[in-house]
Amino acid sequence: MGYKPPPKFQAAKSSVTESPTPTHDNNALWRVPKWFHDLDPMVLTLLQSYHTELIKFNAKVNLISRSTERDADEVHFADSILASKVMLGAGLPRRVFDIGSGNGLPGLVLAIMDPGRSYVLVESDVRKCEFMKHVVHVLSLSNVEVLNERLESLDPDSVICAVSRGFASISKTVLASTKIFVKGGVFIHLKGNSWSKEVAEIPSQLIATWSPKLLGSYVLPVSQAQRAVVATVKIS
């Protein structure tokens, strides 16, 4: 697929001094426009609408931890935006799967930022699938398909590229997905600063099938938490 490790993306430390901006009649914040001046205004509008729906439905569907609601703009959205920049900089095929999508992150963020590609959101939980379909409808996204399926039920050799965020360890993820990927396919994992430990723990029998490499890394704009984008390429 011609993947090339892109330069590291880092969210600049904010020099904004004004008060945080609430999104609507709750305590959630929306500071993404202050952190990402390079994003198109329409992209920012769609991302904010998605954020609004996520917070609104979270109590009913348990989409994110309640402790991260207020800072979801950083913990979930800035994280997905920065990871998406790394992935898009590396080059993606025309169709990308988001495995165990759940709340739609990062698949919906990728679809908003990259309307020229098709994104398939795979989730086994019916209620979470209904939420994602609702967001797709509200945002009028024509490049997104939501599949209420388990990873293991996807057709053999049907996936060229997939991404996951908070799904499972790298070892468990590639072990469960080996049959659905074509040779040369790439599974991209969004990880924290312990990514190297996960790579080191991949069993030797899986290393014979999957070759891991770091695509890029970044830090979140407020917490300065370190994140990494790790690719595993199916080599046999």
Please characterize this protein's 3D structure:
This protein has 236 residues and is an alpha/beta fold. Helix content is 35%, strand content 22%. It has eight helices and seven strands. A seven-stranded mixed β-sheet has the order 3-2-1-4-5-7-6, with helices on both faces. α5 (126-139) links the parallel β2 (118-122) and β3. 41% of the residues are buried.
Task: Break the fold down into its secondary structure elements and pairings.
Layout: H1 32-35, H2 41-61, H3 72-90, E1 95-99, H4 107-113, E2 118-122, H5 126-139, E3 144-147, E4 159-165, H6 170-177, E5 181-191, H7 195-200, H8 204-207, E6 210-219, E7 226-234
Parallel strand pairs: 1-2, 1-4, 2-3, 4-5
Antiparallel strand pairs: 5-7, 6-7
Helix pairs in contact: 2-5
Care to give the gist of this entry?
With 236 residues, the protein is an alpha/beta fold. Helices cover 35% and strands 22% of the residues.
